[in-house]
Amino acid sequence: MSTETSHQPEPVRRKRTDEIVDAIKESIISENLLPGDRLPQEKDLITRYAAGKGTVREALKSLEVQGLIRTKTGPGGGAFIDSMTESRAMSLLSNYLFTRQLSISNIYALRKALEPLVAVSAIGNIDAKGFEQLHQLIAVYDHEPADETERWEQRMAELDFHGVVASYSDNVLLAFICHFLQRLLKDLAVCKDIYQRPEPVERSTGIDYQYKLIDAMRRQDAEAVQQIMTEHMQHAEDAMLGLEATLEDRFLSER
Prior knowledge:
Tscrpt_reg_HTH_GntR, transcription, DNA-binding, mainly alpha
């Protein structure tokens, strides 16, 4: 009979700094602190968490880097709850993806799945002002651009159309992810190259989808909204991949 005993690996002990960061986050929620509210003074945090000054300062610095608090020195200074803007959150997330090989197909794999869902979730929330915004955006790109500047503005407005739809979603996480995907299409290097090329862009089919979408949303026809947006996203992906292929062919021919 074997006398060997199995040894379970010891659990990795978390850094005390990380424990304090989580504890402060929990206190922000439990105490219903809002942007602009002050956290307890440093000495009070040291006492509350039975930690050294350096550890507490490191925890506060971590929260500041995360964009959850801001610190102010001098009279009336201290650590204050800050409001994390959507733009700041997206910038932090973009940093994670900075060195990854991200493609148009990667982005559209998610857009095709999520844009129909976010459009359906916006039904019943979008109002007359929202519909008017959508019509105003279509008016930006329903004609051929006069120059490079207008061409760029048109491509951005095409993405902003979907940003407005997502902004009326009752699912904050779904809306954020869709906004982030739209931002990636604005920032991705290959997309910028595509948007700046002088090749004419066939917009009539996309615009037709968008008018149909507006009509279906007004009628609160969830099934139609989902079907229209699904087809629209597939058409948009095909168009972008086609333009990407044209860009690559041009690059090879110019070498």
